[in-house]
Amino acid sequence: MSFEYLIDPATGPQWQGVLPGRPAPYVLRRGEGEHAKLFGDLFTVLLSGEETENQFGIITADCPPGDVIPTHRHDATHETFYVLEGAVRLFFEDADGSQQTQLLAPGDFGFVPAGYAHAYQVVEPSRMMGTLSGGFERFFQHMGTPTDHTGAQPPFIPDFPRMQAAAQQHRMQFLPEHRWDVPE
Amino acid sequence: MSFEYLIDPATGPQWQGVLPGRPAPYVLRRGEGEHAKLFGDLFTVLLSGEETENQFGIITADCPPGDVIPTHRHDATHETFYVLEGAVRLFFEDADGSQQTQLLAPGDFGFVPAGYAHAYQVVEPSRMMGTLSGGFERFFQHMGTPTDHTGAQPPFIPDFPRMQAAAQQHRMQFLPEHRWDVPE
Q: Which site among B109, B112, B127, B136 would you substitute to test the A interface, given the most A Cβ atoms closer than 10 Å to its Cβ?
């Protein structure tokens, strides 16, 4: 199955160069940025580690309801979840090893540092913002696929080698055996 | 003039301990965090460098219209401006030294890296989110004053020694001679 139609392969994504690639000031309008499709979600990079001496990157995620991001942890990435619109249920292991789940509404904020198992489920059509340790923001382009189409699209389902390569590159561990035993 | 009434001096701010102070998972509900008043603005720290190995911190700012943050630059802090509600006019020097101004509406995003002169003016009652190089998020408590009162309050106007101490501690340079010559 080919998804090259998501961008023009002759020119690459139209958003190339929208970020300066070095610490220089700029402004993006709502919806602008580096777009990638992964599963049903549209991820947009607003800022990358290249602009921040690798301190942090920032993404937005537009997510259809029902989406489940399976349990995983990051070896080296701190990650935030700020709900702009909609509702997202976050599952995470606490510092004492106990399991927690919280339903995040607009304005609610979650933090999961490196090393902690977590997952989330999109309960309503949602828009989230995430700040990530610098470099991880491009994970979604590597596991997903760059796109210039920000409207309704079929999901992009990566094959296993692509998933494994992206996870390895960004030091992300999927935890398929992990079970959540938490009251909702 | 005394502002101790903003917190109970016997116990300190009620928000003490709301952030874990180390890389551990947590959730904040909308409005929760470390509150500080500076001029007319309410700054709330959602995440500090203590949780991110000093990579980044995150704040929100609730700002009344008319507020002007005078021209300054940071020696070592990268700073973002994401408008959640309202409208904010950002002024910044570009990488080629030219001056720019852009009116940011909800969903718009601005980035100003270390070393670049910038200022902003709050045009409508606004709520902004900022991601900052780790450590700078507490600047607003140091130049302003911690508070437990998030509703309407009189402005907190720091005296000059307090402003100078906070600016020096956080390597921020005010640029009172700077003039903006940009069409709005």
A: B109
Paired tokens of A7: 């961008």
CB A59 within 8 A of CB A137: yes
Question: What CA–CA distance (Å, rounded) separates A181 from A116?
Answer: 16
Nearest CA in chain B to A95: B24
Spatial distance between the Cα atoms of A70 and A176, rounded to a whole number of angstroms: 8
Whole-number CA gyration radius for chain A: 16
Phi-psi region of A53 (alpha: psi -120 to 50; beta: other; left: phi over 0): left
CA terminus-to-terminus distance, chain A:
38
**Nearest-CA distance from A1 to chain B in Å?**
34
**Per residue in A33-52, pLDDT tens?**
999 999 999 999 999 999 99
pLDDT (tens digit per residue) in A81-91: 999 999 999 99
Single pTM value for the model: 0.95
Q: Which residues of B6-17 are buried (b: 16+ CB within 10 A; e: fewer)?
A: bbeeeeebebee
Chain position carrying tokens 């009434």: B5
CA distance B53 to chain A (A): 9
Structure confidence by residue, pLDDT tens digits, B94-135: 989 899 999 999 999 999 999 999 999 999 999 999 999 999
Q: Tell me the residue ranges of DSSP E strands in chain B.
A: 26-28, 34-38, 41-47, 56-63, 68-74, 79-93, 99-104, 109-112, 118-133, 145-146, 172-174
Which among A94, A66, A33 has a CA at the least distance from the CA of B80?
A33
Asked whether the beta carbons of residue A30 and residue B107 sit closer than 8 angstroms, the reply is yes
